[in-house]
Structure formats: C-alpha cells, structure tokens
C-alpha cells in the first residue's frame, strides 16, 4: 500500500520554487557566459573542471559520471564530443578491460585555465556579491545539510 504524497505548505512551496528558479537563472546565465567567454559549453567546463582537479587529470568514466550526476549515455556523448575537439582522451584501464579513464589533454588544461578566471568573476558577481559573509556562510551550511540528507536517501 502506497502512502499518499504530502502536499507542500505555501511556505514550503515558496522556498522550493525560489530555489529552483534561482538555480535555473544562475546556471543558465553562467552557461551562456562560459560559452561567450571561452566557446566551451557548460558541460565541457564542468567535465574539464572535475578532471583537472583530479590526480593526474584523469578519472574513471563511471566515477566522473557519478560525480557530475549524469547518466552513462549523456557522459558518453559528452566525452565523444570532447575527444573530437582534443580536450580529453579515453585511456583503457589496465585493471578492468571494460573500464576506461577520461584524461584531460594539454589543450583541455589550457581551455579550463583560460576560462576559469572569467567564470570565477561571473560567480562572484552573480552569486557571492549578493550575500553578506554571514549569509554566505549560512547558505553554505544549509546547502551542505541538504546534500548530506540527499545522500542518505534512496535513489
């Protein structure tokens, strides 16, 4: 027997809707700015950012997909596009013939290094500067609390 889902109170609905709208506006604006500044898509940027933060600029394909919260097919299409443009390469995994590493190339490192300063400036202008240091600290704690809660929930 399934429980009837609980509705949201007006305050809960307002909080949820404003969070979603904020996320959509910020991500959309940052995506357009990344493309205008660097000719990279937001997807290129996030993949290269995660890879270049990793040891040796590489991650296992499935680990990268999970970290970014993408389905395997989306990650596969994105990697294929990035390989064609020389931003990443696929490298076989010696321990697991079915697995592969995605590795940032020198061109990929150059692309993210060129794009990152402007991206950080846009994040500062659109997000950081909107909050006082105390509000930013509270926002970070609340976001972390939600992330930890979501991690405990079944997928």
How would you describe this structure to a colleague?
There is one protein chain. With 155 residues, the protein is mainly α. It has one domain (31-152): Arc Repressor Mutant, subunit A. 66% of the residues lie in helices and 12% in strands. The chain contains six helices and three strands, in the order ααβααββαα. The chain has helices spanning 10-38, 42-53, 61-68, 72-84, 106-126, 133-152, and strands spanning 58-60, 88-93, 96-104. α1 (10-38) packs across α5 and α2 (42-53) packs across α5. The longest helix is centred in the first third of the chain and has 29 residues, at 10-38. The protein is globular and about 50 Å long. The two termini are 20 Å apart. GO terms for molecular function: DNA-binding transcription factor activity.
Give me a quick take on this structure.
The protein has 155 residues and is mainly alpha-helical. The protein has six helices and three strands, in the order ααβααββαα.
Properties at a glance:
155 residues, mainly alpha, Arc Repressor Mutant, subunit A, three-stranded antiparallel beta sheet, 6 helices, 66% helix, 12% strand
Extract low-pLDDT stretches: none
What kind of oligomer do you see? single chain
Strand content: 5-15%
What is the 3D shape? globular
Spell the H/E element sequence.
HHEHHEEHH
CATH architecture heading: Orthogonal Bundle
- Classified by CATH, the class is Mainly Alpha
Number of strand segments = 3
Number of domains: 1
Mean pLDDT: 93
How large is the radius of gyration? 19 Å
The CATH superfamily is Winged helix-like DNA-binding domain superfamily/Winged helix DNA-binding domain
Rounded to the nearest angstrom, the distance between the terminal CA atoms is: 20 Å
Separate helix tally:
6
CATH topology: Arc Repressor Mutant, subunit A
């Amino acid at each position: 027997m399934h429980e009837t889902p609980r509705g949201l109170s007006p305050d809960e609905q307002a909080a949820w809707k404003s969070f979603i709208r904020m996320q959509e506006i910020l991500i959309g604006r940052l995506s357009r700015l990344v493309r205008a500044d660097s000719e990279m898509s937001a997807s290129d940027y996030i993949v290269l950012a995660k890879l270049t933060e990793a040891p040796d600029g590489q991650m296992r394909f499935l680990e990268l997909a999970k970290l970014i919260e993408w389905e395997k097919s989306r990650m596969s299409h994105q990697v294929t596009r990035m390989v064609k443009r020389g931003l990443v390469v696929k490298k076989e995994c010696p321990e697991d013939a079915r697995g592969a590493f995605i590795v940032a190339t020198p061109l990929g490192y150059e692309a993210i290094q060129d794009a990152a300063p402007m991206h950080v400036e846009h994040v500062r202008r659109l997000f950081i500067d909107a909050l006082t240091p105390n509000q930013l600290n509270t926002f970070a704690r609340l976001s972390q609390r939600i992330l930890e809660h979501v991690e405990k929930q079944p997928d």
